[in-house]
Amino acid sequence: MNEIIEINGDESILPIFSDPNFLFSQLFGATTVKSDGKTFSAEIPLSKLLGGNSVVFYGNIYSSPSSVIYAFHVAGFEGNKGGRITINAVEGKIRISLELDIPLGFLNERAIKSRIERFKKNADEIIRLERIRRKI
After folding, report:
1. Are strands 2-8 and 32-35 parallel, antiparallel or unpaired?
2. What is the pLDDT of residues 55-83, one digit of tens each?
3. In terms of CB atoms within 10 Å, which end of the chain has fewer, N or C?
4. Other residues' Cβ atoms within 10 Å of the Cβ of residue 77
5. DSSP 3-state of 49
């Protein structure tokens, strides 16, 4: 599953996106996120059709002044299950590029896409509130 999200903003809000607690809870509805600044793990609930189970994304965070990259795998699954989230500040916009290969994608994709759509719809307000909370 590939998805691109564009929202208003500049480099000043990249620190918000370099926080996996914010990103994974807002974008995927993660119930638990742990991070040491360079690595992370996030528990993502899946489709209720599968009994409401969850998967754990774990990986690395790479950040620069103009971008943040999350490269991750899905715990307990062999092969190329996982993905990459790239966040760039470009011309007054924040561009979030999602590349995901999740287990049982045909069943779970709908649940994940609905969370992404909710984030797209409310992103400006979510970020505004987070900027106020962090005093950015």
Report:
1. unpaired
2. 889 999 999 989 999 999 888 766 667 88
3. C
4. 15
5. helix
